[in-house]
Amino acid sequence: MRWSEAHIPTLRDAPADAEAVSHKLLVRGGFIRQLAAGSYTMLPLGQKVRLKVMGIIREEMNAVGGQEMVLPTLHPAEVWKTSDRYDLMGENLFKLKDRKDVDLVLGMTEEEIFAMLATELFSYRDLPQIWYQMHTKFRDEPRPKSGLLRVREFTMKDSYTLDIGAPGLDRGFDKHHESYKRIFSRMGLEAVGVEASSGAMGGSESIEFIQRSDAGEDWIVTCTNCDYRANLEKATSALAEIEDGESGELERFPTPGLRTIVALAEAHPEMASPEQQIKTLVYFVDGEPVLALLRGDHGLQGQKLLDAAAASDGRPGRPEEIRELLGADPGSLGAVGAEGLRVIADLALEGRVNMTTGANEDDWHYKGVDNSRDIDVTQWADLREVTSEENCVECGHSLELWKGIEVGHIFKLGTKYSEAFGAFVQDEDGESQPIIMGSYGIGVERGVAAVVEANHDENGIVWPVSVAPYEVVITVVRVDDESTRAVAEDIYSQLQDAGIDVLLDDRVERPGVKFADSELIGIPYRVTVGPRGVSESVVELTERRGLVKENVALGEAVAALVDGVERHRFGI
Fold first, then answer.
1. CATH number for 519
2. Is there a single domain that holds both residue 60 and residue 200?
3. Are residues 414 and 537 located together in one domain of the fold?
4. Which of 133, 198, 539, 555 is the most exposed, fewest CB within 10 Å of its CB?
5. Last residue of a domain, which of 381, 416, 436?
């Protein structure tokens, strides 16, 4: 491609609302343009990168036996009602009606449709299967932001394993785990797999692949010593044991004006340190009130509460709701004597005695609380949010918290969807068994943005060869010089013949403008052809990563470029 004929609308300034580096550089470099909040056009450069990412994904999925399909995006709402996800997905699911007043949705994922297709499998001999697609998805994000990192319309590679029995699911899950590591490595990412919540997807196990980045929205917990890694929504840690002594009598005592954990601890240090207090939070999960109990010095991790309650939606109770429910304001709340309410208590409270909690009357608390005796706990669960001050649950060493971008997610779904849609097969004994499913997703455009977040400098993007829009750019210093132009055209022709994706910068522009543009859009290799070099039979080769320059004999330039490109096509 000749730059003079290409549509590469580079900009000097980034959008005023752009915060993420990838958002700024992809707009400035002429890769994307925003149509509306969370909706982007992929311009020619962006589309070339997108297709190369999709090519890597397709190659790796095919390598593990994946079979590609294309499913509809417009779904009958009845399908999602059958799986109980029509309401579960809440406002994230785009819902509409057609001219016949039939309820429809825009698919945000495709477990339901693939499960319906699986009803055409009849025997264990038809299994295992790996089916996948790369198709548009829609999610009504409340706050789309950061360019391609959080959008409302995007391309997802979603694949599904179909098998019979847990060992088959494990094999399919492990295949995808290894495949994803290869995909992200080839894209120039250093994504790591971390334990994660399955959320509304359901299932027994899930792993997120996270690229470390300050632009990410996920907080990750990792051990500084061992391989423990988990999303903050799933992470746990080791806690020091606390000696409470023998269980005492429950006693109500006045606490006028003491409405916080800290205030109560300062007023009664002998019996109400934060570790000795029970924090009572009122939440509404799927519309029903729940009391969440934690140690006074611990914070609630909201997704853990939803997972424990098997709920999809939750919010803190409002002051008027809390008073109507318990008869007191926050700061004086407790679960002692609470009847008819679901109580979910954090595991750190299990077995604890001689604790302090609110008495559900303003300015009054209980002391001597024995959790097993005085509180009717409906469910014990891990609810607390891990902090970096705590230690690893596996080896006891210190933990680190860092931000990252989720670039992939794999789930063990189990039989939830196959049972809902009647996808059963006959096993070896002739018995009918539900197909066991796994689900595996990669957001393509988010992956593009993550590559930029991980590969850039002060001058612009530094694309890995494997996903770069062009592998080589030829910068013609003087387009009006015949000998310079002829040499550049010859190198251009030879590189094309060698299968190199090459861009010839034949614009009538100052050399500084051309250099700045090539560095902004991040092409891995640049060959600069100018009158002085041609007269000396040399050209300048520049590697974008590090801007390393060297003069190369004219007759050796093409071979050097081809060698560099081919060595890095399968990784950085």
1. 3.40.50.800
2. yes
3. no
4. 555
5. 381
Element (H, E) at 55: helix 44-63
200 — alpha (psi -120 to 50), left (phi > 0) or beta? alpha
Please tell me whether residues 270 and 154 are part of one structural domain.
Answer: no
pLDDT (0 to 100) of residue 571: 64
Residue 435 confidence (pLDDT) above 80: yes
Cβ burial of 270 (10 Å; 0-12, 13-18, 19+) is: exposed
- Phi-psi label, residue 144: left if phi above 0, alpha if psi -120 to 50, beta otherwise: beta
Residue 240 burial (C-beta neighbours within 10 Å; 0-12, 13-18, 19+): exposed
Q: What is the pLDDT of residue 205?
A: 86
Neighbours of 267 (CB within 10 A): 12
Please, which pLDDT band fits residue 172 given cuts at 50, 70 and 90?
Answer: very high
Question: What is the pLDDT, as a whole number, of residue 385?
Answer: 96
Using the predicted structure, report yes or no on whether residue 305 has a pLDDT greater than 60.
yes
Confidence (pLDDT) at 313: 85
Does a structural domain hold residue 40? yes
The CATH number of the domain holding residue 370 is 3.90.960.10
- Concatenate the DSSP letters of all residues of 216-235 into one string: --EEEEEESSSS-EEETTT-
- Percent share of the chain, pLDDT over 70: 99
* Average pLDDT of the residues in 264-274: 94
- 189 close to 422: Cβ distance less than 8 angstroms: no
Sign of torsion over alpha carbons 40, 220, 275, 302: positive
Domain interval for residue 371: 251-381
CA distance 344 to 378: 6
pLDDT digits (tens, 9 = 90+) for 475-498: 999 999 999 999 999 999 999 999
Q: Are residues 522 and 446 in the same domain?
A: no
**What pTM does this model have?**
0.91
- Supply the angle between the helices 44-63 and 166-186 in degrees, to the nearest 10: 140
Work out the angle between the directed axes of helices 21-28 and 444-454 (0-180°, nearest 10).
100
Mean pLDDT for all residues in the chain: 95
Last residue of a domain, one of 353, 381, 409: 381
Same domain, 440 and 549: no
